[in-house]
Design goal:
The chain is of the alpha/beta class and 330 residues long. Helix content is 33%, strand content 23%. α5 (171-182) packs parallel to α11 and α7 packs parallel to α8.
Length: 330
């Protein structure tokens, strides 16, 4: 998994090992229209080199200037940007947004090594830090855990909060896997057909060769899991959908044109699925961007995944996006 967490934490670890002065910066609280949400990370080297982002704007510029000047704190401390409208405008924070950061000097990598190990193994891990004492602890985390800050203690959760199961190891799946990995999904691709998975070589993606319906059950599909069928083979796609639509998955989609999706829904009605469960299906899958090529289709699917993920809790979380349109026959 090549998530942003790994990129930031690995750079921080390497820089410390090379003898650089390094600060880890974490967004712990936000108010208003803050550009990044709690949990966003950046690692900042003493010479001003930065990886990651906490605002995408002038906040980073200010932090870099302070790092180069040697004025960042020597112990973990809070830094707040955007308290006044003038300061918000100065730092490019929209609509009076405010960011509260925790800025930590990294003196060693004692906690970074086990965290990186867990994230690479697709496990969630929580780190809790006491700002007054500087002590920290690590513990396993669950998908419902998130960043938290009470003024003295803050916790960060690292690792893949979201999962994507793709049915079919074809070209669309390859491109979608790369995009979804960059979006911090732990991506799994299921295809029992040896002619399709024999040459599969994507080290950051988990390949599963069991039957699709068994896979949906075996992975422990939960509310943080999305399932997308892209094989164009009803025998495989429909097997996965029969289980997926009954599961807690936050998103279930299938590739295919509108007429073929209508036929698919009729097939699904022959089994023990309710109209409500069938109505959860995003088909045709993806946002309506007139996509045709595998890469364009993957972009459309990824965009809809982000839309649904970011609107969980409302009607959008379980209702297909009305802006979908047919792209391919199946």
């Amino acid at each position: 998994m090549n998530s942003l967490d790994i990129d930031v934490l690995q750079h921080a670890r390497d820089w410390v090992a090379e003898g650089h002065r390094v600060h880890l910066i974490t967004v712990v609280q936000t108010w208003g229209s803050a550009p990044r949400q709690a949990g966003a990370l950046a690692a900042l080297r003493g010479d001003g080199r930065l990886v990651g982002s906490v605002s995408g704007g002038c906040v980073e510029d200010d932090l870099i200037a302070r790092a180069v000047a040697g004025t960042l704190p020597d112990m973990a401390d809070r830094v707040t940007y955007g308290i006044t409208s003038e300061e918000a405008a100065r730092f490019g924070l929209p609509c009076g947004g405010t960011l509260r950061l925790v800025v930590e000097p990294l003196h060693d990598t004692l906690w970074l090594d086990p965290v990186l190990q867990d994230v690479r193994a697709h496990r969630l891990i929580m780190r809790t830090v006491d700002l007054q004492t500087g002590t920290w602890t690590l513990a396993p985390a669950s998908p419902i855990d998130g960043p938290d800050f009470d003024g003295r203690t803050f916790r960060s959760v690292y690792g893949p909060h979201w999962r994507l199961l793709i049915i079919g190891a074809n070209q669309t799946a390859r491109v979608l896997s790369e995009i979804a990995t960059a979006l911090d999904f732990h991506v799994m691709v299921c295809d029992p057909r040896e002619e399709f998975f024999a040459d599969w070589n994507m080290p950051n993606v988990t390949l599963l060769t069991s039957m699709p319906d068994d896979t949906v059950t075996d992975i422990g599909t939960d509310e943080r899991t999305a399932i997308v069928a892209v094989t164009h083979d009803p025998k495989l796609d429909d097997m996965a959908l029969l289980e997926a639509l009954k599961s807690p998955a936050f998103y279930v989609g299938a590739l295919g044109s509108a007429p073929n999706q209508a036929k698919r829904r009729e097939r699904l009605r022959m089994f023990d699925l309710s109209d409500e469960e069938i109505g959860r299906l995003h088909g045709p899958v993806g946002l309506r961007i007139a996509s045709r090529t595998p890469a364009e289709i993957a972009v459309a699917i990824a965009a809809e995944l982000v839309w649904v993920r970011n609107t969980l809790g409302g009607a959008a979380a379980c209702t297909p996006n009305p802006s979908t349109a047919s792209r391919e026959g199946s």
